[in-house]
Amino acid sequence: MIFRFSLAILFVVFLPRVASGAPNQHLEVAMRLISHHVMLHVGDSQSVVKPVQKIDNQYRIEFSTDFAFEPSSIASIIDSIMKVSHVANSYQVAIIPCAGSEMVYGYEITPTDSLVPCLGRTYPKACYSLLITLPDVQETEQNQSAGMVAFPLLLLGFLVAVAAMAFLLLRSRKQAKTQPAAESSEIVHLGHFQFDPKNMYLSLGNQSTELTGKESELLALLLQHVNETVERETILNTVWGDEGDYVGRTLDVFISKLRKKLEADPNVRIVSIRGVGYKLILNG
Q1: 188-282 carries CATH number 3.30.200.20
Q2: Residue pLDDT, tens place only, 78-92
Q3: In angstroms, how far apart are the furthest CA atoms of the chain?
Q4: pTM for this prediction
Q5: pLDDT digit string (tens) for 114-147?
Q6: Where are the domains of the chain?
């Protein structure tokens, strides 16, 4: 139980941290998907999608062929993929010439406000590159770095917690073995004694006496027929059953042991009924 509970905690708390490197790969896939769909839009389905270049939180997408574009079409492609991939809540897009760094067209998307100018214009066929900047990514990567620093401390705390839980479990089991289980006991009053047939002990005041399994079964049977004679054959069949041949005075030996354990209360006696069996007598 402890192991399964601890394993569940491990998956819930630590697995997302271990997988924290996945967003970078997810972003690169999203950028390559943008490149692919832009190429399809401008009629290029044959060229290879070029690798995406990443500098800090900026991604540069280059194309193999020249193309003309209309801003609303490019924006629609990029925005739809960004929404589906959930890579960022805010981003800026810039289209620049391959041979220069001056922006030909650009726009910005944020959760509260968006700037998408120059819709309806058509830009001439040329070699262009896309620059997509993700302001949220830099903050996310910093948080991931802090998480990786904190991870060993969290792991140590987790292991200490598991060790403490295991120690408490072992201690509770040890106590359960040395003390009668009060909730599951079936206490029977036997004179001044308290008899627990399930947990196999007799108690008188602060003193407890353990019984063997056979002693407990024998005493329970005699108590069931208190002040009545129980025949030897009935006792042997009930307590020992088909356990094989009985050696000599087996039953008498157990009766003798029980008498010794009950002698602290003179009101409780086991008497022999010669040639018949035994009787448990309770006085008062």
Answers
A1: no
A2: 988 888 888 788 899
A3: 122
A4: 0.41
A5: 777 777 678 899 999 988 998 866 555 555 555 5
A6: 2-140, 188-282
